[in-house]
Known about the structure:
Layout: E1 3-4, H1 5-8, H2 10-13, E2 28-35, H3 44-60, E3 75-76, E4 80-85, E5 102-109
Amino acid sequence: MAFDFKKEYRDLYVPKATPTLIEVPAMSFFAVAGAGNPNSENGSYAEAVGLLYGLSFAVKMAKRGAWQPQGYFDYVVPPLEGLWFGEGTFDGQRMVDKDAFEWVSLIRQPVRRA
């Protein structure tokens, strides 16, 4: 059965009813940084997300090829994660200027620790 990060690390992927401190282990990610409105059709955000999923599924499907990365194990591709920031983009109640967003989008990658 494929390793599922969301099930094995529920404390990281399933929100709690109340704020809770958790210990976050070191992790490896594919990441793309950019800026701009994430809703722009064919914009840089859409391109970044496509790139992240393309790379992630290429690694996952290595199990079907002759070569596999060292330490490979079968897994479910983890969910897309993102960091969003930008000066003047949020006024406390609503998004003010989505074109001013800066972001980093990430997908966790499997790495066996020794």
